[in-house]
Here is the input.
Amino acid sequence: MADSKQLYQEVILDHNRKPRNWGVLADATHRAEGHNPLCGDRLTLYAKLDGDTISDLRFEGTGCAISKASASLLTDALKGKSKTEVKALFDKVHEMVISGKASDPGLGKLAAFAGVHKFPARVKCAILPWHALMAAVEGRGAPVSTESEDN
Here is the structure.
């Protein structure tokens, strides 16, 4: 158990220090902004959809290690996924972050966020990029905020 805990901590720290898919996506077809007033996290998520499939994802912003790592891992995990697959993974990640149960092997490195449930203030940090992604792919223009989401 301690080894997996250490591995998950390393995954989060690595994605915070060296976020993948960082920066503006010039040819994005969808975009959304997210804000967590409690922690100060702010991010913009850019998505390029080809039909119903995400062909590219990028993000930029400022925030805590959990928020930045979550956005980084999200962008890696969702490239090539359909909107239906994105929604299904959102539901699994949301449940995992709230409950701590990461029994689905399909979560891969996203399972690093299972321990976040022990820190309720950090749940919003971990899930903010996911809410922004859902707003982007659903075409909602208003920025998302953790204070208006049911987390």
